[in-house]
């Protein structure tokens, strides 16, 4: 049985329908979980506008059809038989709630991703996808997880990097795209204050071309690689 069906389709038309209602109901049922635009109903049934309008109101009152939101054409009225649930093509899937983007769900998933990254330091898209599949109660695709991570990158909440195979990246193949929580950016004065040059006892001997110089100083090199 199609997962879009909520209950079995009645074998015969409901009693008490006039010809116009019956014709319209059959057209709507034929579209299953895709639904149909009111204008297309008029085109397919060849019925006058006033008959279609009156019949649709009657079928809604009798709870044989329902209005559904098509996220691609929100300004157009779509109708569907009550025994069907809208397909993802129409409803937008789990990212949407009654035709509107479910921002609360997305924010919760983003927070979950960041918490997971903080615990693991560096993660791949596949790792985040596998983690979310353990938590959510609906089917979530690798592409959808990628969209969440891209959103977090744009928010500067996480950084997209490539593994160098060292340190935190030791378990991730070199060159693999992965993600880690971004280091909070502080005031620039704080960055300069953290320079290793200030407390260095060899500071007076440090020159650009000397034996002791910024280009050979390991502490200065480490400081340059910090993410302020």
TrEMBL record:
Keywords: DNA-directed RNA polymerase, Nucleus, Transcription. It comes from the Eukaryota. Its main location: nucleus. It holds the Pfam family RNA_pol_Rpc34. GO terms for cellular component: cytoplasm; nucleoplasm; RNA polymerase III complex. One of its GO terms (biological process) is transcription by RNA polymerase III. The keyword Nucleus applies. It is found in: Nucleus. The keyword Iron-sulfur does not apply. InterPro entries: RNA_pol_Rpc34, RNA_pol_Rpc34-like, WH-like_DNA-bd_sf, WH_DNA-bd_sf. Belongs to the eukaryotic RPC34/RPC39 RNA polymerase subunit family. PANTHER family: RNA POLYMERASE III DNA DIRECTED , 39KD SUBUNIT-RELATED. This is DNA-directed RNA polymerase III subunit RPC6. The lineage of its organism: Eukaryota, Viridiplantae, Streptophyta, Embryophyta, Tracheophyta.
